[in-house]
Design goal:
The protein has four helices and six strands. By secondary structure, it is an alpha/beta fold. A six-stranded mixed β-sheet has the order 2-1-3-5-4-6, with helices on both faces. The relative contact order is 0.25.
Length: 183
């Protein structure tokens, strides 16, 4: 029996402070030994690249991103995304923005292109509050930076469980709205 193929996708904008969480985590993962069945990629804000990668038929995808949910900064979440529930309103075509990556919009695009994605987990981190006056913020906040190593271990554990067919745990099983994934 063939092992599942897993994509670990880092998402975020390195010029927007804690939004770079996913990029930072996958950067650490690239320096570690993961099973050959797992591919780790820093997608940053390249939504179209992620959409095309998802067309490759991964059985599971682990997205890593800043995820505001109202908890204390640095809190980690594992959420499960229902890909079938990401269809947009009737008559609304999928759209991708050139300078941001919205996972829900990416999944809509993949679906419109005839692709199907298996299980989708989001490893998210609660960002520190972003002030409207902050045009650009370099580097992660102290709380989010402290969560990076824990997130690396969490992603490795999820990949291991997914490859063993155990599925991985999500702390919240539901559809994630566009607002909840930090966009």
């Amino acid at each position: 029996m063939m092992q599942p193929r897993i994509l670990v996708a880092g998402i975020g904008n390195i010029f927007l402070g804690d939004d770079a969480f996913g990029v930072e985590v996958v950067g650490h993962l690239m320096n570690r030994r993961l099973p050959d069945e797992a591919l780790v990629v820093d997608f940053g804000i390249r939504g179209l690249d992620l959409a095309y990668a998802l067309l490759d038929g991964y059985e599971a995808v682990v997205l890593v991103d800043a995820t505001p949910r109202g908890g204390p900064p640095g809190s980690l979440y594992v959420l499960e995304l229902d890909a079938d529930a990401t269809a947009g309103p009737e008559g609304q075509g999928p759209s991708i923005e050139a300078h941001s990556l919205d996972p829900v919009r990416v999944l809509r695009l993949v679906r419109s292109m005839g692709g199907a994605v298996g299980r989708i987990l989001l490893v998210g981190c609660e960002p520190s509050p972003f002030e409207e006056s902050d045009d650009l913020r370099d580097g992660l906040s102290t709380a989010v930076d402290a969560a990076v190593d824990e997130a690396v271990v969490l992603v490795e554990s999820l990949v291991d469980r997914l490859l063993r067919g155990e599925g991985g745990e999500a702390s919240d099983h539901r559809v994630i709205s566009e607002e909840e994934v930090g966009r």
